[in-house]
# Entry
Amino acid sequence: MKKIIDETESLSPLTGRPIPAQVVQTAKGVYLEKEDEQGKFYCSLIEKDIDFYHSFKNEKRDLKCHLEAIVVFVSSQCNLRCSFCYEEKGSREKEPNLLELEQFVSTFKNKHIALGGLEPTCRDNLDDVIRIVAKNNYAELITNGLKLSDMNYVKGLKEAGLKSVFFSFNGMKEAVYKEINSAEIFEDKLKALANLKILKIPTVISATIVRGVNDQEINKLYEFCRQNKDFIRQLRIRSATNTGRYVKVEAMPLSELLDLVCSALTIDKQSVINEQKLFNELAELFGLSYFRRRRCSLFFHLKDDDKGEGKPVGRYIKEKLILHKWFRYVLIPYYMFSCYGIKYILKQILILLNLPHQWVKTDIFRIGLRSWPDMYTIDLQENRKCTTGYYRGGKLEPFCYTNIVSNYRAE
# Structure
């Protein structure tokens, strides 16, 4: 039996324009249903695990969300032709000039601003762009990393004010890159990471997981990150999605991606969920949108035990107690300090304030999961709560929305 959960809006696969949609629940999962302008009906899976979908929905009040980070489109060129890339038609777009970029970023202060596009290192004056951003904000770079194999190039970016890097790294063997990136680039990427390590540039490893290609690489990626925690601060794992250029694949709902990661790392899924409950209550209690789990993403933490093995901090959290009407006021602060420790909390505060944080050493490692929506599954009401904006084509809009509609605007 079908049950309507929400009346919302989505995007028309025909035109890319907003159209009415419904989020519905059946015995097989949660789906988004809609009809395009010509009456074609679409029913697309959002989540297989119904309980998981409902478990983090904010019933009490809708939190006012603030932009925590901004991605800026700075390059319409790339040095790869990957089989999987959410940037299909960006090469037709005009790159913003330095004056436009300066006018845009000058409206922000102490904001995390990541330079993206197809491949930002293909822009000749990237160092000038970084200097503009770094004047009053935290300059980050989203990259495939190939040009970072040149030490002098990386030094130049750091001297310009680059603070951290989001590095695309999909596995620990060459065959993965041949399949996903259509090139033999594994050794170049390792050299680039070695340069980032030498220069002590904080790095987030970003892995796109494709069914049957690199879904067995997760544990190897995690071990690589653990061995290099001195400069790698997070492992982000996202499912390949049907946006941009891709070989037709079935995207993984967030619960399936979590199951895959928990199995690969031999950790308890309920412990991860307990931590999400803690974050959700923290968001509700103090009105902090940063901690609100969105339906497309979550993050959790592993803490080294006495044997040096990473264990989910959520195993120490009692779910029923943090949901208690009165106990939570005492237990939420208690769990924050007892599970994470003062050093990790201090480090996160320094990161948010864009202050030096590399000197703070902790035994906790963060893992983020992403299952981005595509043209068929995007829920615009949910997407408007996104805390990451994308400045592209002179507009600042939610990140995933911009990725999707940019393919229509470029036509």
Q: What stands out?
A: Residues 1-51 form one domain. DSSP finds 13 helices and 15 strands in the chain.
